[in-house]
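Sharing a chain and its predicted structure for anyone who wants a worked example. Both blocks are below, sequence first, tokens second.
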Amino acid sequence: MAESQDILSPRAVTRDIFSATIGSVFCCYTGQPFDTVKVRMQTNPAVYSGIFRTVTKTSSEEGIRAFWKGAVPTAMGMAMENAMAFGVNEALKRAFPDPKKADPNERPDLSRPFMMGAITGCCSALVLLPSEVIKAKTQVQVGEHSSAEIFRKMMKKQGIRSMFTGFEAQIMRDAPFYAFFFGSYDLLCYTFRTMVPSMPEEMNFFLSGGFAGMLGWTAAMPFDVPKTNVQASWDSKVVGSYFPELIKIGRERGITGLFNGLGPTLARAFPANAALFLGVELSKKAFDNYIW
């Protein structure tokens, strides 16, 4: 294990936060329209029964701006989430470095990033939860409802507890998501470098990030549908609403019901996470060259 001063050095932590924040902005505004479609399909499948129907119904009734509902708290939450996620993940890499990486001729331990990703998911869930609750409630509202209005209504109805609705739901989704998110990113970067050595580094970051996002969401989707329903509801508890909702969806909609919204999620995952990882990696270089 590395020395604690190396793991949490001011420069390393600042670099992690800076790069994650820049990447988050690109990720949020690239992926928010897809996420709004996904949330509406998950929470009200009878009305929003498909991607095309959801897009046309939302745009005709509420206008194009409706697809970016909840973007401000999402961007804020995403910046905090990714600062936590990338910060924890990078700190874990510094704390437990892969000895095989010192030898360029030896294949690195590709199981290590998956385990570190799961730990990262549990940590980031704590930071992301309040913004996820506000976003879920805002996105399912029809008409003009700002995130600030939703927040005030939450405080009036349940107080500060409303910010932590579905705590266990957030953990159940984020642990598998980040395991595949970070694990498959490292695996794909290594694969592209090995199999396509002529590929530009930026293209490697872009493609690996996009596919890692798709794999992460495919693994997490069965846990995301009940999470969204719990957090969009005004009657959910902090702990105790997730598993009853999971069982209810399984009984009413079958296993396929747990994958509602997978289409727009995957459509969002590639461009959003390609932008995220590309932004993160380029921001690291900019930080090294121009800032510190």
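Comments welcome. The chain has ten helices and no strands.
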